[in-house]
Specification:
Blueprint lengths: L4 H9 L3 H22 L10 H17 L9 H23 L7 H9 L5 H18 L2 H11 L4 H8 L3 H19 L2
Helix pairs in contact: 1-2, 2-3, 2-4, 3-4, 4-6, 8-9
């Protein structure tokens, strides 16, 4: 691994399997560690932290080969992206496994993400949230998503936006559909 990670990123984007293997070996243990942390307390199911890390890395490789990360060029950006994808996959798995039925959603996210985040992870989540907001391509939907992330209840959002509760619920469903469509790519 004498060559720079930036060079390997370029080769990986071209579909070079050796580059994928080099990047995989370099980052896999960190991804597994993050997934293990995020899955703490989830009973063993059909998937574990290694499966989450593998899935995140596979998604990254497929997306990179499709040109989805044209600005990705250095190890810091790569690490942030891989950590973000792994955290998202772990949260999706927690949700899927329904590890703790009845838990409140805000408690779920606090537990899944952790009470204290290091600045690097905060930056990753912020970057991902900004990317998701851009997918909405609508100022009202962006404002709604931000209000929801700030903890406002649907009724409070309806009052703030001067619309019906049903409108807020429909718009939230639209946001979910857009984001789910993006995460399935």
């Amino acid at each position: 691994m004498d060559e720079s990670i930036s060079m390997w990123i370029g080769r990986l984007k071209e579909g070079n399997s050796t580059a994928a293997q080099v990047v995989f070996q370099r980052y896999f243990d960190r991804l597994v560690g993050l997934a293990r942390q995020k899955l703490k307390g989830v009973p063993g199911g059909m998937a574990d932290e290694e499966d989450v890390a593998l899935s995140a890395f596979d998604s990254f490789c497929r997306a990179a080969q499709k040109g989805r990360f044209p600005d990705l060029a250095d190890r810091d950006g790569l690490l942030r992206l891989l950590l973000s994808m792994t955290a998202r996959k772990a949260i999706d798995l927690r949700r899927h496994e329904k590890a703790r039925p009845g838990i409140q959603e805000d408690e779920f996210f606090r537990e899944a993400i952790g009470q204290t985040l290091d600045p690097e992870l905060i930056a990753i989540f912020d970057e991902e949230f900004q990317r998701l907001l851009q997918l909405l391509a609508d100022r009202d939907l962006e404002s709604l998503a931000i209000a929801k992330m700030q903890g406002y209840k649907n009724k409070e959002i309806a009052e703030r936006m001067d619309c019906s509760l049903r409108t807020v619920e429909r718009q939230l469903q639209l946001i979910r559909l857009k984001w789910q469509a993006e995460s399935s790519h």
